[in-house]
Every structure is written in structure tokens, then in C-alpha cells.
Amino acid sequence: MSVKPRRADFLVIGRYTSLVIVGVGLLMALPLVTSVLFAEWETVLDFAISILACMAFGLAGLIVCRTE
């Protein structure tokens, strides 16, 4: 017998997935700082874009997947 997942179950999964995405974005700040210290400007731009994308998708997911 299988249990049919409810909408609330998907919201919880989406919330925690969004938290992981935000965490990855925050962890990318360390290589960003390293790239700045070594003056590797092309990788600085790559990390900055990646961090912004992670934050945008992660925060959007947190807003969409709000639970009580």
C-alpha cells in the first residue's frame, strides 16, 4: 500500500531544497574572496554570477514553498 503525497509534502521538500541552494550560494563566497585576492577577475565574474543565481533561485523557492 502506497501513500499518496500531499501538497504540503512537496512544499517541505521544496523548502529544504531551496535552503540547500542558498547554502551553496553562501559557500561560493569563499572561492570568490580567493579569486579577488589573487586578482583572477574572470573567475570573480563567474562566481558572482553563480552566487546571484543561487540566491535568486533559492530565495524564490523559499517564498514559493512557504509552510506554516
Question: Please, could you describe this protein's structure?
Answer:
By secondary structure, the chain is mostly helical. 79% of the residues lie in helices and 0% in strands. It is built from three helices and no strands. It has helices at 7-27, 29-37, 41-64. The longest helix has 24 residues, at 41-64. It is elongated. The two termini are 29 Å apart.
From the structure above, extract its key features.
68 residues, mainly alpha
Instruction: Name the helix and strand elements from N-terminus to C-terminus, one letter apiece.
Output: HHH
Structural class: mainly alpha
Distance between the termini: 29 Å
Helix content: over 70%
Return residue spans where pLDDT drops below 50 for at least 5 consecutive residues.
Answer: none
Helical run tally: 3
- What Rg do the Cα atoms give? 16 Å
Q: Name the overall outline.
A: elongated
What can be said about the biggest beta sheet?
Answer: none
Number of strands: 0
The pLDDT mean sits at: 94
Strand content: under 5%
